[in-house]
């Protein structure tokens, strides 16, 4: 009866766990069961439960009895092991440390703890160390000076040409007073001059601060003010964006008279700054992440080994200029001697069809696409003719239903962990995981007390190892808050603010941001779960779910026409009512930022067509007209017809109370 009245579908348990505390007869007969069935002949029976997990505690007065009933599919043996361990720890604490807080009692058996911290983090790799990024590039110049380093349409530069021009720029920057660990800003459009600028800055000992010309003027001004660069590189088309800052023209001749030899900076080490990339900040102001050469050096070695990138490879760079994935595209390619293909200046992630048309025409064997761009390509059934490996990242992978001729590698990592912290191949129809920690990285899923959580349990994701960045520029307080001492290994770890859980095979399932776990009608909602269910509906291409003004809204693309009633009814069969969106907004394509990430701010507000409403017939009479006006105000809809349903328009019991 409770299940039927709750609105929870019969396929979903009303409770995931049940605690049953029973006061039993204290005498011995009750304790061992004798006498309970006196006068009754027991012919047989079996235990059953309506809930996945039931724990019964019998209070016998002089002691307690515990019994557990668990369904096999939830890992009954493992759960019972946790309970047994918890009881042991509780008894020991009561005897030896009665003041111990309950939430400090460990429940993980030592063997599982070792699996989580050691076996799942067996990532040590003996890569060469002690090199700068431009040093590794210069080694490729020595090996193959006439190989093509960068190709953009008809324009190309060999490794020798790229090196010589970068050297001239570096000597010019040194003459301007640039020193190791200084910051030099660069604002330019995609092209060979971009690589000349990046290499020239590194060769002068500084770290580069990329500024995307597509940024709003206010953001550009803030990045320049906060990073305080000692020099600014630009090109004629971007100089006006930089205000009063004096700039070095990347396309000019003022620096091209300098020597073409490699600058020699004895004081420069891999611990010096490579770049500062700004990410969105919770305070509204971007924060600059300082990444060192040694951080990127580990990324380069792992990438080249994991994906077979070498001097015969062709790869691409499509990420936005201010996006950290650009560093992942550029430096492994140039340090491996590969050819880097750049799309035309006019083609960006906002023009997805044009970008993919260019991408399909390139002779690539390893390439990166932002996850939303890749998902769009999948929905269009595009197949790259030469691609061996497709790397995706930057956003959550929502679906992958059909295998491709290339391997799909899903990657996860915050800027603070040098682009990629975990990586793994995803196969159609299997769990959409983010893989395992990359070489020389550690990942921990921890609770609020920084203790490992069991396999299958959600925890906050922390990243340690060689990729952990130096910290935030000019934000010592935030650096101390987010970059913590690693309690399990020497070094530091970064607190990502992301939620995830271990899968039994050691891969990690991404669950979303901590702040994505919102409450709707008093119920904690995990948006990623709703998105996954909606994306799994036949005919749905891509799906996004957000909370706006206390309402769950869904945006989707479709492979063929779908009725809102179909979407809603399928979700109602799988989710509690509180988790079913009230509006479904159909889009031709999800809006993307210049970095290729989902642009949530650009998602439109729902109109009447996004709501499940009946054929409109105007209210009749004063009562219906008044009631329709009140409904429209409470439900925030344009109009209410006399046949519309309060709950289908997004109403619920809490809103119904406000009508009174």
Describe this entry's structure for a reader.
The chain has three domains: 14-108, no CATH class; 133-345 and 392-502, ANL, N-terminal domain (Rossmann fold), CATH 3.40.50; 518-658, ANL, C-terminal domain (GMP Synthetase, Chain A, domain 3). Helix 9 (293-307) packs across helix 10 (325-336). It has a five-stranded mixed sheet. Strands 19, 20, 22, 23 and 24 form a five-stranded antiparallel sheet that branches. The chain is of the alpha/beta class. Helices cover 27% and strands 23% of the residues. Helix 12 (371-379) links the parallel strand 14 (366-370) and strand 15 (389-393). It is built from 17 helices and 29 strands.
Give the overall shape, derived from the CA principal axes: globular
Unreliable stretches (pLDDT < 50, length at least 5) are: none
Strand content: 15-25%
Cross-sheet strand order for the largest sheet: 14-15-16-17-18
Protein name: Amino acid adenylation domain-containing protein
GO molecular function: phosphopantetheine binding
Organism: Pseudomonas edaphica
Keywords: Phosphopantetheine, Phosphoprotein
